[in-house]
Amino acid sequence: MSHMQPIIHIVDDDPSVCRSLKRLLQSWEMQVRTFETGEEFLAALSRSKDADCSVIDVQMPGMTGLGLQDRMNRAGIDVPVIFITALTEGWIEEKAMSAGAVGFLRKPFTEEVLVGLIRYALQRRRKSVACVVKPEK
Q: What pTM, to 2 d.p., does this model score?
């Protein structure tokens, strides 16, 4: 992550959710890209690997959020995932977290909780990237 502003990708089939989260995160000095489908998101990642964190809706037509997470894991895409959902089934959260999600938020959630979770994900990512980079001799 060499850029100053983190790049957050939002994947949600509801355009109003994408717009409101984009405005919110931009007000916190984050760059935001939005996608209405998991397929659209994966295509963008195949062209450019510049995502620092992804916020993904669980329930979407076509590829679900959990399906997207599975595809990312199988492809070795190492971008922290935070799920958002209106669903209340506990097994969904358990499955998402056991597959490596950084967080799981049920709608409605507060701005502070989302931003705090994104910052946590970015810190974890910075530490893991720093561990991979070998110091020059």
A: 0.88
